[in-house]
Amino acid sequence: MSERYDPAAEGAEMRFEDRMAYGDYLRLDRVLDAQSPLSDAHDELLFIIQHQTSELWMKLAVHELESACAAIAEDRLPHAFKMLARVTRIMEQLTGAWDVLRTMTPSEYTQFRETLGQSSGFQSWQYRAIEYLCGNHNLAMLRPHAHRPETLERLESILARPSLYDEALLLLARGGFDVGADAARTEWRTQRAESDAVTAAWARVYRDPEGHWPLYELAEKLVDLEDHFRRWRFNHVTTVERVIGLKRGTGGTGGVSYLRRMLEVELFPELWRVRTVL
């Protein structure tokens, strides 16, 4: 039998009494101690980890989207493209995570559902931040965060700045495209209105990709992002229906009916309309 491999023989560090180790850098003690099931149900740990890891991915998505907004505002499009591509890959991770959760059956979920109280995923402030950063400014969804002033302030700070799509439209305007009222907006908090002028501007870009390549690539990066965002939401709907059917959600929403309504929300509407007019 061959001798067991010892990494130290090739110079691997094996002692960390006075050095920073892997677990120290990642603060794994804090991360791995953050799961506190409130029942004895086997599947509650799955439920907690599913949502905690999703929140970590969303934290990264918020970071990348904010950076992409800044990059577009500064005409650093290659940097924005890299960040938007990363957000799309994050959406793939979030979408795939539902495949793990749907291994939990209705019988297993009912063993701990009552321990959730009124907590619900629709109260996730980071999910709301992603929607706000992309331009879906449903101000009614600020209310679940009124009890946390620091969270409310964070969301309001996002609403006070141009969204990702606003920055894309301002870029079009700087490039000499007529985007109508979107070129003169100064108040970003409320929901912008869909615009025929913006659809026409994107149509110009799509009719001459070679002549407007950076804008054309930006448009497709935005469509990629929303495409994967829709898949994430769709997988959420089907997972919830598979586990709880048409029962109301723990947070008081209609559950599946509420989530289906969210599927109709469009983040970048003119980029979808332009496909019809081309």
Count of beta strands: 0
Share of helix, binned: 55-70%
Shape: globular
State mean pLDDT (0 to 100 scale).
93
Distance between the termini: 69 Å
Q: Which percent range describes the beta-strand content? A: under 5%
Main sheet record:
none
The CATH architecture classification is Up-down Bundle
What is the count of structural domains? 1
CATH top-level class? Mainly Alpha
Report the radius of gyration as a whole number of Å: 22 Å
Helix count?
Answer: 12
Compose a concise summary of this entry.
By secondary structure, the chain is mainly α.
Quickly list its features.
278 residues, mainly alpha, Methane Monooxygenase Hydroxylase, Chain G, domain 1, 12 helices, 58% helix, 0% strand, globular
What does this molecule look like?
The chain has 278 residues and is mainly α. It contains twelve helices and no strands. It has one domain (44-277): Methane Monooxygenase Hydroxylase, Chain G, domain 1 (Up-down Bundle), CATH 1.20.58.480. The protein starts with 21 loop residues before the first helix and ends with a helix. The model has no long low-confidence stretch (mean pLDDT 93).
